[in-house]
Design goal:
Blueprint (H helix, E strand, L loop, with lengths): L1 H31 L6 H8 L3 H7 L3 H30 L4 H13 L6 H13 L5 H25 L5 H20 L3 H5 L9 H17 L5 H5 L10
């Protein structure tokens, strides 16, 4: 019995150490960026043995990808469930499609530490070109995202395919900025806004995004036009 109790304690201690590593690493990656944080920094702040990081995760990249998967998979899953619920209710409504996509990403108070860390980290990743990171985000998000792209096409059959991709691209940029909430709206409004209230944010954000999708498409002639190449001087 004592051996079992000792084993249980070791497992519990190991789980606590693993969780501590994840929380500290996520906070450091969010505030400083992936490249600026080393395993030594994580060990120092977490106040753990350096061997613990290698035991639980192996490398910094593996730890980073674990954190991304941990935070991103629930968002993708919630989106897929929300989409299926919309399909089951009947004909798709564009505003509802947009909200179902946005809500899971914004669906925790932005001032809650873990949520704020992921929001800031996601903002940093918006310009990330690291192949492993892009591949992981594509693996997690692409299946549900393609469901929503198809739904938007169904709602806006007159919109050219390229326009849908561009407008969805802008939706993602707006969403990531809203997730990160750098504080500009509070400053500009002199505190007369509450970007921590999910329903208030969505009440303003969804119509804004919908209007962008419903805007008249770029005329075909202008869409095809490219700047003329400059002639080389003799």
């Amino acid at each position: 019995m004592s051996d079992i109790t000792h084993l249980d304690r070791r497992r519990a201690a190991g789980a606590q150490t693993r969780q501590r590593i994840v929380e500290v690493a996520e906070s450091l990656f969010a505030s400083q960026g992936y490249d600026a944080v080393g395993l030594r920094d994580i060990v120092r702040v977490a106040e753990i043995n350096s061997a613990a990081v290698h035991y639980h995760f192996g490398t910094k990249e593996a730890l980073f990808l674990h954190i991304l998967r941990l935070r991103a998979e629930p968002i993708a899953s919630a989106r897929a469930q929300a989409f299926q619920a919309l399909r089951a209710r009947g004909p798709l409504v564009l505003s509802e499609v947009i909200e179902a996509f946005l809500r899971p990403a914004l669906d925790q108070p932005l001032h809650e530490p873990r949520r704020a860390n992921y929001a800031e980290l996601r903002a940093r990743l918006s310009g990330e070109q690291e192949p492993a990171v892009r591949a992981l985000l594509a693996e997690i998000f692409d299946p549900s995202t393609r469901m929503f792209l198809a739904a938007i096409r169904d709602c806006l059959p007159e919109l050219p395919e390229s326009e849908i991709y561009y407008r969805f691209h802008f939706l993602l940029g707006t969403m990531v900025y809203a997730m990160a909430n750098p504080g500009r709206i509070q400053d500009l409004s002199l505190g007369d806004t509450n970007p921590f209230d999910l329903d208030e944010v969505l009440a303003h954000l969804v119509p804004f995004i919908e209007a962008g999708f419903r805007a008249a498409p770029l005329p075909a002639a202008r869409a095809r036009k490219r700047p003329a190449a400059r002639k080389k001087q003799p």
